[in-house]
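Retro notes (design track)

What went well: tokenization of the new backbones is finally stable.
What didn't: we kept losing track of which sequence belonged to which structure.
Fix going forward: every design gets posted as structure first, then sequence, in one message. First example under the new rule, 57 residues:
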């Protein structure tokens, strides 16, 4: 990322090597990365589904 802290969707679609490929190629690339299960995904995903708000609303 060369020190950049943000990007636009257009920049990513234009310059991100993963996003310049077909859908099928993207899926293959991501599957071959063999990434480990994210440590905080079980907390982050439910929080994201309710806009980060926790507790009774």
């Amino acid at each position: 990322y060369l020190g950049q802290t943000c990007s636009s969707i257009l920049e990513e679609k234009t310059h991100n090597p993963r996003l310049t490929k077909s859908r099928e190629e993207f899926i293959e690339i991501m599957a071959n990365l063999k990434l480990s299960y994210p440590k905080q995904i079980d907390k982050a995903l439910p929080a994201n589904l309710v806009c980060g708000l926790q507790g009774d609303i």
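Added context from the reviewer: Helices lie at 9-15, 23-32, 41-49.
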